[in-house]
Design brief:
The protein has 497 residues and is of the alpha/beta class. 40% of the residues lie in helices and 13% in strands.
Length: 497
């Protein structure tokens, strides 16, 4: 069979001029399928464009367009008019080549492995759950997405698109969109007593990037840092990734008990603390402990990284001022986030840094991922300056207080004798204390299998805790979901033996 007759057979039936796809695309698709299936093998010659056009009863330009598309994509080679041949190496073969030693053919134990540091970082419990797409009992860190002013946010975003502000589509400032930095500085001054100029605000892609940035700017590999124990695994991971030597510090009723370890280790360069609402125990650091920590940092020539991750949510009394606001020696780096207050996918947070560190933080921020989405920053800036953010926080504070009360009433009714759950005057989760001798990790695994997501306290500690417990988030759930979740957890605990 001649090459021409073979091609004729492969492209039949005749092309359909009434089909949605144009004629050149129909011819291209049929020839491409014939090449990929092997019916037109490597090196096969295609008919000339004139012959193909006469045989198919279509314009020669249509055939030329189909051939040019195949040539551009690498399915054929040669010069149009002097001979066109099926390529010997097809694009799919290059992209999907089966290399020797693929899974199933390799030698056991010889597969690539991460570095020792990579393996140790991968072993740290993930503070996020990338698989979980919707809130469920009793996931942590989820705000009430059902109560977020989504239509308002959409209108603000649409306004920027309608105005065609091209400068928001260009490269952004690594330190952040200036109007947002101004709005954050003003907000922190009134809400948390933070003293700063807008130039000291560095916008980051969430608090996790802020932790990573602070670790790399402030610490050298093998430097020592204090970290709360139990404490936030995201901070632990950021410091370990920077090669920092972590010194776990126990937490007592006044917060991080650094006096109990001071002077017992080599020079400590930084203390990481969550003084407003300790993560995960919910303790507020006393004023005497705060002043002592500031005095230590000043005399030790050290830094304090203050993570104020959920200070917006306090349900009783007035919160103590931020450490940064009472720091006269510029030893405190202040970290906050909007992800837990508004919605997680926003991925916007901020650092407030001393004046002497603005340039260093900005330059290292640029090396991380350049800058955060300028459009998102612009919308958030307007959300803040127009008063929408303050109103949102007030609504959420009332809603979360109500949801905590629903949780406590359900726990009192369903969990008595199984889990000790008490109120907390702030935050987005409660602690359920477990009887001595019970393993909170085992219980958490069984709860997850039953559709209840809890976080064992022991997964956030480097040393055995005096008492095991479960972290129970409630802010993302309505009353019915809270009560249902408590009943399911009670059934799981009741069957635990």
């Amino acid at each position: 069979m001649t090459a021409f007759s073979e091609v004729k057979r492969l492209v039949s039936p005749r092309l359909d001029s009434d089909a949605p796809a144009p004629l050149y695309r129909q011819l291209y698709d049929r020839l491409r399928r014939a090449i990929l299936s092997g019916n037109l093998g490597p090196g096969s010659k295609l008919p000339s464009t004139r012959e193909m056009a006469l045989e198919l009863g279509i314009a020669r330009n249509t055939v030329m367009t189909a051939y040019e598309q195949l040539l551009t994509e690498g399915y054929v080679e040669g010069e149009l008019g002097s001979g066109t041949y099926v390529s010997k190496a097809l694009p799919e073969h290059l992209l999907n080549a089966c290399l020797p030693g693929r899974p199933g053919a390799g030698t056991p134990g010889r597969c690539p492995k991460p570095s020792l540091r990579g393996a140790s970082l991968a072993a740290i419990p993930n503070p996020f759950n990338p698989v979980q797409k919707t809130a469920c009992p009793f996931c942590l860190g989820w705000p009430a997405l059902d109560a977020f002013a989504l239509e308002l946010w959409a209108r603000l975003t649409a306004r920027y698109w309608r105005n065609k502000l091209s400068h928001l589509l260009a490269y952004g400032d690594p330190a952040g969109y200036w109007p947002l930095r101004e709005a954050i500085a003003a907000y922190l001054a009134t809400s948390r007593g933070v003293q700063c100029h807008p130039s000291q605000v560095i916008v980051v892609s969430g608090s996790q990037q802020g932790l990573d940035l602070a670790a790399r700017v402030l610490l050298d590999p093998r430097d020592s840092a204090w970290i709360e124990d139990p404490g936030y695994n995201g901070a632990r991971g950021a410091f370990l990734a920077a090669g920092v030597r972590l010194i776990p510090v126990p937490v007592d009723e006044e917060g991080m008990n650094f006096p109990s370890v001071a002077g017992k280790q080599p020079k400590v360069r930084l203390a990481y603390v969550t003084p407003a609402h300790q993560y995960p125990l919910g303790i507020t650091m006393s004023m005497s402990r705060r002043l002592a920590l500031l005095d230590w940092a000043n005399h030790a020539d050290a830094w304090i990284l203050e993570d104020d991750y959920d200070s917006e949510y306090r349900y009783a009394g007035r919160p103590l001022a931020a450490l940064q606001g009472i720091d006269s020696q510029e030893r405190v780096i202040y970290l906050g986030t909007f992800s837990k207050v508004l919605f997680p996918s926003l991925r916007l947070g901020y650092l407030v840094v001393p004046r002497s560190l603005i340039d260093a933080f900005t330059r290292v921020r640029a090396l991380s991922d350049g800058y955060s989405s300028t459009l998102s920053q612009a919308v958030l800036a307007e959300f803040l300056t127009a008063g929408h953010f303050a109103r949102h926080v007030r609504r959420m504070r009332q809603l979360y207080a109500e949801r905590q009360e629903v949780f406590l009433r359900a726990a009192q009714r369903e969990l008595r004798g199984l889990l000790e759950v008490g109120p907390c005057d702030g935050g987005m989760h409660l602690i359920g204390w477990i009887d001595h001798g019970m393993d909170d990790r085992v219980i958490a695994r069984r709860a997850r299998a039953g559709g209840v997501v809890t976080t064992p306290l022991s997964s956030l500690a480097s040393r055995p805790l005096k008492r095991a417990g479960l972290m129970l988030g409630y802010t993302a759930l309505d009353s019915r979901s809270i009560r249902d979740g408590v009943r399911r957890l009670a059934a799981i605990l009741g069957n635990h033996g």
